[in-house]
Amino acid sequence: MKALSIRQPWAWLIVNGYKDIENRSWATRYRGPVLIHAAKGMTRAEYEDGQELARHLGITLPAFNELERGGIVGQAEITDCVSDSSSPWFFGKFGFVLANASPCAFQSCVGRLGFFKPDLEPQREELAPNTSPSTPRPAIEAPAMKTMTLDEFRDALKAQGVPRDHFAFRCPRCKTIQSANDLIAAGAGEDFEAVERYLGFSCVGRFTGADDPSKTKPGCNWTLGGLFQIHELEVVTEDGIHHPRFSPATPDEAQAHQAASA
Ligand SMILES: [Zn+2]
After folding, report:
1. Cα of 28 to ligand 1 centre, how many Å?
2. What is the pLDDT of residue 139?
3. DSSP-derived secondary structure for 195-221
4. What is the value of pTM for the model shown?
5. I want to staple 168 with a disulfide (CB 3.0 to 4.6 A). Which of 37, 41, 51, 254 is the partner?
6. In contact, 77 and 20? CB cutoff 8 Å
């Protein structure tokens, strides 16, 4: 059976029958059963994102560490592929409509992009050293991702040589350079402390309404921790947790941006 790799907590929400749409940037003509693979990676931000929406819909998620990852967790049936839906789980661009979902006993396997045929191996083989000569294929858990420690991240911001209100980040989606100053101007909050949670995480366009058809404002409605993993940087804190962040702008970009907003 085909499998589809989905990040947690969304995979759990699907196999337990709550989430009836799986969003993708691509459409499918496939209709029929599909194994649901829970991807290995899950950031705290992704978990909290899912938890917030689940809570809003009256669903209680298992704890962060209780969500099974890196294997098959259940199955569902794809009954349609839509570009519009009233489901609270629909975000687009395309929604795979799901029915008859059910969880199963966890079976460890590597996930891949798109539909894939899972290599389901006996559990004991995982304990032995991997001497298999098979060609490595790109796994969905290992995107080309830049990582920085928190200190490196802070140093990159300090190197911009601007006050903290003007620390500049680049949205990975629309590439707009933006700062706390822009978020404050867009009405996201009154001061640095109030907008800090969005800084380098949610595009300023979310607050200016930039994704409306008028397209007269900079930015887009992107926020990290959603379903589409296009971010380019993860900041790794001492506890080993990866936090997706917009990449800091270069010192030249940051200083030019500050000058332009003065
Ligand atoms: Zn953006």
Report:
1. 27
2. 44
3. HTTTTTTB-THHHHTTTSTT--SS--S
4. 0.48
5. 254
6. no
Cβ(207)–Cβ(187) under 8 Å? yes
Residue 35 belongs to domain with CATH number:
2.30.130.30
Å from CA of 178 to ligand 1 middle: 9
Give the pLDDT confidence of 1-12 residue by residue, as tens digits. 899 999 999 999
Domain shared by 45 and 108, yes or no: yes
135 Cα–ligand 1 center, Å: 37
Residue 19 C-alpha to ligand 1 middle, in angstroms?
Answer: 27
Residues 168 and 225 both lie in one domain = yes
94/78 Cα distance (integer angstroms) = 13
Ligand 1 centre and the CA of 219: distance in Å?
A: 4
Residues belonging to the chain = 262
**119 with 173, same domain?**
no
pLDDT per position as a tens digit, 62-93? 999 999 999 999 999 999 999 999 888 998 88
pLDDT in tens, 171-199: 888 889 999 999 999 999 999 999 998 89
Determine the structural domain holding residue 173 and report its residue range. 146-261
Same domain? For 11 and 112 the reply is yes
